[in-house]
Amino acid sequence: MNTxxxxxxxxxxxxxxxxxxxxxxxxxxxxxxxxxxxYFADVALFRGDVGLGEREVGDIQVGPWxxxxxxxxxxxxxxxxxxxxxxxxxxxxxxxCIPQVKATYxxxxxxxxxxxxxxxxxxxxxxxxxxxxxxxxxxxxxELWVTMExxxxxxHQGSVPLSKASPSTVAWLQKQGGK
Amino acid sequence: xxxxxxxxxxxxxxxxxxxATFSNLALAHNPICECKQIEGGQIxxxxxxxxxxxxxxxxxxxxxxxxxxxxxxxxxxDSKLTFKRPDAEFYVLFDAGPGHVVEIDQADIEAP
Lengths: 179, 112
Description:
The complex is a heterodimer of chains A (179) and B (112). Chain A has 179 residues and is α+β, with helices and mostly antiparallel strands.
């Protein structure tokens, strides 16, 4: 008489798991695929393949010169630690002004002086970037001022309403309720 | 190539992607300046950068509304400068170089 009890065979699910558990790891390959659309969109944005920025503002006349302005990202200002909320813009100088312009600055509100002209644009004149602080108490009808300094020592200024330069920033300011 | 090597490489790619995503602002080091009124009618300003570094030796001028420089100063080793509150209307300009400035209007300097 056989007294040994039969060994319970593993369930079908367990069998499947034991047989395939190593190969199922290949599914992990799909994880980075989820990040790829954002990655390639960012690469195209920073390379300039999709234009100057996510949203073009247009040409701004600054004395005898002009520049094409764009929002780097079509979104509300981003918080940068203790420096407060910052907003990034890109710009390209007009062909004729490239040899004449030494520096280009960006500021919300009219600058008091050339020293306090705001954030400076850096990078190639065909595609340069500047980041400006956006104080929480900025009025929604404020203007974005561009100050350009020439190699000959001349200085010219131009402005564009913030509502035209960055509607998303104005919408964000209105949501802050003028704190 | 063994699958484990492949996975390791893909993990590296995912890490680079996330770094590229989150470093946009981290790369910038925007200037920071805070001023407060302390006892004795003095004002103390502290400068620095948003990456956490201090700003010893950086210029900090107190400028009148008429653009005359009331107090030409430099931040000390502790990134701070203390000066007497001017009688005239003024603003504070933390000047770490062209385009790296912070302006603080007198109206924004809190009383103790």
